[in-house]
């Protein structure tokens, strides 16, 4: 759990299939609300 003022890890995330981006690149232009869920691009 991150605390206020903690730096985010520079993890790689995917905005869509084959759309890789790092967390730091994503928030470069300001704060974001991130919602994580599984199996978005799968047939299950």
Q: Which structural class is indicated by helix and strand composition?
A: mainly beta
Helix content: under 10%
What's the story with the biggest beta sheet?
2 strands, antiparallel
- The tally of helices reads 1
Proportion of residues in extended strands: 5-15%
Q: Please give the alpha-carbon distance between the first and last residues.
A: 29 Å
Anisotropy-based shape: globular
Question: Could you give the order of strands across the largest sheet?
Answer: 1-2
Q: Outline the low-pLDDT stretches.
A: none
- The domain count comes to 1
| Count of beta strands | 2
Helix-strand string: EEH
User: Gyration radius, to the nearest Å?
Assistant: 12 Å
Overall pLDDT: 83
Overview of the molecule:
The model has no long low-confidence stretch (mean pLDDT 83). This protein has a two-stranded antiparallel sheet. With 44 residues, it is mainly beta. Helices cover 9% and strands 14% of the residues. The radius of gyration is 12 Å and the shape is globular. It has one domain (1-44). A hairpin with a 5-residue loop joins strand 1 and strand 2.
């Amino acid at each position: 759990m991150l605390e206020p003022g903690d730096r985010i890890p520079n993890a790689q995330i995917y905005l869509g299939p084959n759309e890789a981006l790092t967390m730091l690149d994503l928030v470069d232009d300001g704060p974001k609300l991130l919602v994580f869920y599984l199996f978005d691009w799968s047939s299950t």
